[in-house]
Amino acid sequence: MNEFNWKRIVIKVGSALIAPDKKGCSSHYLLSIAQFIVRCRTLGVEVVLVSSGSIAAGAHMFSGAEPTLPVKKAMAAAGQTEMMATWDRLFDFPTAQILLTHADLRNRDRYISVKDTIDTLLSHGILPILNENDTVTTDKLKVGDNDNLSAMLAAAANADALIICSDVDGLYDRNPHTHDDATILSEVNEITEEIYAMAGGATSDVGTGGMKTKIEAAEKATSHGIETFIVNGFTQLSFNMLLEGKNAGTIFKPYAEPMQEHVHWMTHTSKAQGEVIVENDFDAALDADSEQLTSDEILSVEGDFLVGDTILVRKDDGTKLANAKSNYSSCLLSFFADRNNEQAGPAEYTSGPIISEKNVALLDESKGD
């Protein structure tokens, strides 16, 4: 790879490539992707594969069934086996299956466990194949699309690059399926509102993601210092170009100064389980001396959360200040708030600050975090 000095990459493959006609898995489009993965490994580049498609792969086994939620979960259970078997047949080295829900990523201990598992598999020459566990996930626990999941996993794996396969050649200034004069953006240096405005809806009736989720994924990945590509996964030319060190679609350039690892996880992977509302004149520097956040500043608490969960700290006027790991449960913080700025209570309840400096990610309101 002349231009790309990758040591580890994540490649995301969607349902439309796995089961394009909803009649089970097809290797028609997967063969060129598998060849790309093999070539990367030959060149010493480690690969992590994020593969959607379990529901699409299993749909043909439930002909005539109404696609209710339980039926879709059953499709995912049956299709996941077929999908893994299809991938396994395309490689002459071992593969491993990892199924996740968002709960596995937003919990710090489980997130570290996922990181360690990926590292261990790669160190033994095994290809990790990851997917959201659609069989057991719920609205509360799901990521929802594998574009964003792939970005979270690229950060967890400390990848150099994220390659997202699409049904178009990259990001266009307008939908190329409906506008003949659409122009592709070969390079994006900063993801702005104008970039998001170029994203239309999903063009495939098989997958769940559209261009917007791919841009969201690119924003997550580039903020971690990960070079991100959107390429056409339906043509072998895309992968040949990448192997030659050429941009095969749209490249999103990584941040010059990536977020610190724990800040990135708090901002882009962990999900706030509740909110702590403080006074409008609260001006403590949360990143420098968060111990200033005491029960005296808490006006109210929203949501139910436990010690160690991520919370949103915001002002009463709605201004978002930070995502942070809570050192107290919502029940106890509500008790503090109800005391109307009295002292937090007996010493056994106030052994430390409400949030800790090392577990805070400040939010930039201008970017809509």
How would you characterize this protein structure?
The longest helix has 21 residues, at 69-89. A hairpin with a 4-residue loop joins strand 11 and strand 12. The chain is built from 13 helices and 13 strands. It folds into 2 domains: 8-264, Carbamate kinase; 272-367, PUA domain (Archaeosine Trna-guanine Transglycosylase, Chain: A, domain 4). The model is unreliable at 201-209 and 344-350 (pLDDT under 50). The strands form 2 sheets. The protein has an 8-stranded mixed β-sheet with strand order 3-4-2-1-5-7-8-6, sandwiched between helices. It has a 5-stranded mixed β-sheet with strand order 10-9-11-12-13. It has helices at residues 15-18, 30-42, 54-58, 69-89, 102-106, 108-123, 146-156, 193-197, 211-222, 236-243, 261-269, 286-289, 330-338; strands spanning 8-13, 46-51, 95-100, 127-132, 161-166, 187-188, 227-232, 250-252, 275-278, 298-302, 310-315, 320-326, 355-362. It is an alpha/beta fold and 369 residues long. Pathway: Amino-acid biosynthesis; L-proline biosynthesis; L-glutamate 5-semialdehyde from L-glutamate: step 1/2. Its main location: cytoplasm. It is found in: Cytoplasm.
Element-level helix/strand string: EHHEHHEHHEHEEHHEHEHEHEEEHE
Q: Output the number of helix runs.
A: 13
General form? globular
Name of the CATH superfamily of the largest domain: Acetylglutamate kinase-like
Uncertain regions spanning at least 5 consecutive residues: 201-209, 344-350
pLDDT averaged over residues: 86
Count of discrete structural domains: 2
Strand content: 15-25%
CATH structural class of the largest domain: Alpha Beta
| Structural class label | alpha/beta
The CATH architecture category of the largest domain equals: 3-Layer(aba) Sandwich
- Span between N and C termini? 36 Å
Share of helix, binned: 25-40%
- Tell how many strands the DSSP assignment holds: 13
